[in-house]
Amino acid sequence: MSKAIVQNSGPVTLVGGGQASAADVAEALTFAQIGVAVDGGLVTALAAGCRPAAVIGDMDSVPADALAQIPPARQHRISEQYSTDFDKALRHVAAPVVIGVGFCGGRVDHQLAALHTLLVHADRPCILLAEREVIVLGPPALSLDMAAGDVVSLFPLVPVTGRSTGLEWPIEGLAFDPARQIGTSNRALGRLTLEMDAPGMLLIVPRRCLGPLVAHFCADPVRWPARAAAHKDRPAP
């Protein structure tokens, strides 16, 4: 397991260099007051008035004038090119849950890489803030108060099974597989409960669920175990 650069008993906000507004950063910081900039995300963080506790990444996209505003002790350059900057940051932050801002929207390949990182580091809960939704890798068990008719999308990154209550189309008995069976555009009937048998299911729900999701991960210590395939720090080639 990677050594923590930032360790906090409460939630942490990661600010990336993708599409994000000052309002997005402010919303995340409402729930997770400790901010960490991910490489070029430092520009977004500073513009939002956030002085991050750390800047993590290979520093190939952060302007020198922005970096000069951060004490050297808070700058953590990780030069290996085997992983994305989001991966580098997430694996070096120890917190009950992380809110990721600036990792959705913009380039599709960056979004796909961020979703891959959620799976690779399933033991480190992270909620990605999108324009209208939040995205999280489904934990072993989850309960959320939803409004009837709320869109609930489930997208498997790997074959996975589970159970649900409070969905118009229950998932029990379905063998989810990204090449065979997905579960997008389901609808909530009210209170939603999900149980997943393994890590691998993306849960996409309305953005107003951010607070309840943060509260869930802070209150429930049950999470997926660290994956043997998780990235380890390697020297740059």
Give an overview of the whole structure:
The protein is α/β, with parallel strands linked by helices and 237 residues long. It has two domains: 9-131, 3-Layer(aba) Sandwich (Rossmann fold); 141-196, no CATH class. Helices cover 21% and strands 29% of the residues. It contains six helices and 14 strands. It has helices at residues 22-31, 41-47, 64-67, 85-90, 108-120, 210-219, and strands spanning 6-7, 12-15, 34-38, 54-57, 75-77, 93-94, 98-101, 126-129, 133-137, 141-144, 151-156, 162-167, 183-196, 201-206. Strands 2, 3, 4, 5, 7, 8, 9, 10, 11, 12, 13 and 14 form a twelve-stranded mixed sheet that branches. Strands 1-6 form a two-stranded parallel ribbon. It is globular and about 55 Å long.
What's the short story on this structure?
The protein has 237 residues and is α/β, with parallel strands linked by helices.
Write the layout of secondary structure elements.
Elements: E1 6-7, E2 12-15, H1 22-31, E3 34-38, H2 41-47, E4 54-57, H3 64-67, E5 75-77, H4 85-90, E6 93-94, E7 98-101, H5 108-120, E8 126-129, E9 133-137, E10 141-144, E11 151-156, E12 162-167, E13 183-196, E14 201-206, H6 210-219
Parallel strand pairs: 1-6, 2-3, 2-7, 3-4, 4-5, 7-8
Antiparallel strand pairs: 8-9, 9-14, 10-13, 11-13, 11-14, 12-13
